[in-house]
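Ticket #4471: structure output looks truncated?

Reporter: J.K.
Steps to reproduce: submitted the chain below (384 residues) through the standard prediction queue, then opened the result file.
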Amino acid sequence: MKIGVVGTGHTKFGKAQEDIGELMFKAVHEALENAGANIAEVDAVYISNFSSSFAKQGHLPALLAEKLGVRKRITRVESACASGGLALKEAALSVLSGINKIVLVVGVEKMTDTPIEETTQILATAASKIEMLHGTTFPSLYALMARRHFYEYGTTEEHLAVIAAKNHSNALHNPLAQFHKEITVQDVLNSKLIASPLKMLDCSPITDGAAAVLLCSEESVSRFTSGSSGPIVYLTGVGHCSDTISLLRRENLTSMPAVIEAAAQAYSMSGFTPQDINVAELHDCFTIAELIEIEDLGFCEKGKGKDLVESGATKIGGKIPINPSGGLKAKGHPVGATGVSQAVEIVKQLRGEAGKRQVENAKVGLCCNVGGSGATAIVSIFSR
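Returned output as attached by the reporter:
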């Protein structure tokens, strides 16, 4: 598989003044401008969005069509926090099928206008209703995973705190990130307890934002190279898997089988291996998620993620830099936009356009976008 990624767009993450339609429009406009393209050339658009309950606005395809002043095939895609990755995959499949040659993918979520109690309830719809009725929340589900990982492999709260501190440090150099505040390991350990062992600074925030990418067939790439001075970047592999929505049905809480399967598909399709990956954007909704994904993606043996983190290998300049954007933890997590935002960061890294957070000589990058407590995973591989 070889699909050109010829344009990227990305709003500032955080609390936005714009409504959800304006956020989409801004990201799309930037992606088109980046590619030197116009909306008339686009065959179809895929929107990733988790819940219309946040912005109190449904029917996003029609809303975007009105904002853009077009009549187009526009499709909304939802798979909880993995919506962005899934929209990217569906757009890629439409190009591979020959139905479309040029496709836009835009992810969006407008969350901060919703009261926190209602936000918690909306997010809970991505988890098992049975588990939620028994009092669980996403922090407590990931806390269960963390506790089991601690028990089986000797991982500690300090290892998770290193991940949070690293991602905040990376976000300092990302002007589009929600947080620009350096934190220490001790800051994380001393922050408010949310669900033991997870603290406030182990958790990603509530965020507004949008991100977009313009994809095209390999034959069409030469038409859209004016927006970037870097090399052409291609989407070369995508894997997709859904597992049980509940943790109680999982055989092992220390891994995410959907991530393992999606990664296997992406590696096979792209022809790359874990050892070929130069930079990765992982779904660190909670710090334990990043650590588990490091292992499930094959960057190290099971149970050795803590050693990789402790060694500094996942920092910029290390063996396998993870989340140079700041990740969900510090860049922000507007649910429907997250998977597309990951792709934008990897494309910028492979183009050499990431500024002070640039990973040197990055040629192959990976995104891992996860929905729920590991219930759905999309793994995408890009190369230049």
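Triage note (M.O.): checked the attachment and the full token line is present. Residues 123-204+235-383 form a domain with the Peroxisomal Thiolase; Chain A, domain 1 fold (CATH 3.40.47.10).
Status: closed, working as intended.
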